[in-house]
Amino acid sequence: KQWYQRRVRGLGVLLSFIMSILPFIFRAHNADKHSGFSKQAVLLSIDELLGEPLELQLIHFIGFILTMSLSICFITLFVVAERAYSQRYLYAKYFNALTTMRRAKQHGLPHFRLRSIQNIKAWLSLRSVLRRVGPLRSVGIIITSSFLIMLTILTVVCIQFFSKGSSSMNLYFIWEAMAWSMCLGMYLLRLFTLGNDISERFDSQSLLITEQINIYFFMQQSPQKKEQLIHANQVLQLSSKLLKEIDNRENNNFVLSPFVSQFLRIFLLSAFSGLASEFLGFKLKLWKMIK
């Protein structure tokens, strides 16, 4: 939907703006050692900034513009990947509704049963086409690279915290690393969730088994079509074995790997929980919120 895409783009612009003003937030945080980040510290930081020479103010402004532009360019990649995954999710959702009368009528789609070889052939061809729609390789490179970058950033941040403790918050690169890790983590969680939903929608094993059971029921109602239904049932059995082998092979890629999803859920969210617990003073277990 267009309103959803506008919200996604608006969120990207907002995150880019936050990344651009992060140096000013860090400066305000360190402006007053006693009060920390407060209204007084912000006003003091603004006064110091306005009191600097014009050349330094120009450098700060250019740095703000460059950071904003680069952040928008980087986050645009995630917006494109999220849009591609959202489109594939809609394709998978509508494809899954074709063989169900109620859902097909709800979405205004044609409905057909897998009771003939022609229908099975059309269903398999449509599934093969829909699974390869969109820029799969480029989106996979974006997600894989972002995942490795976030993992590297989190490793550096955790090592820094374990070695220096809370004094690490006086370093600007820790602020920027944590901000980028939270930004990457938010988008990656969304993409991993969409990827798992797409895989579940295209997982046709239960559907094929249900169609085989329906064929046996239909044999009792129409004995004159028994031979045709037997052939269709045999094709369904072969299709089920073939799709199971193909899906296992395709799910070995990095983006949709169950091992990577489990690693993301436990390790990365546990790292976020540990960092948040240090600041808030009580234990958080964010990884239990995502199943």
Described by the principal axes of the CA atoms, the overall outline is elongated
Regions with pLDDT < 50 over 5+ consecutive residues? 252-256
Which H/E pattern describes the elements?
HHHHHHHHHHH
Largest sheet: none
Distance between the termini: 26 Å
Number of E-type strands: 0
**Which class best fits the helix and strand makeup?**
mainly alpha
Helix content percent band:
over 70%
- Helical segment tally? 11
Q: Quick check: average pLDDT?
A: 77
Q: Approximately what portion of the residues adopt beta-strand conformation? A: under 5%
Q: Specify Rg, calculated over alpha carbons.
A: 26 Å
In short:
By secondary structure, the protein is an all-alpha fold.
Protein model, in words:
The chain is an all-alpha fold. Helix content is 78%, strand content 0%. The protein is built from eleven helices and no strands. Helix 4 packs parallel to helix 8. The relative contact order is 0.09.
Search tags:
mainly alpha; 291 residues; 11 helices
Layout: helices, strands, pairs:
Layout lengths: L1 H19 L1 H8 L9 H12 L3 H43 L4 H6 L10 H14 L5 H29 L7 H31 L2 H17 L4 H25 L7 H23 L11
Helix pairs in contact: 1-4, 2-3, 4-7, 4-8, 7-8, 8-11, 9-10
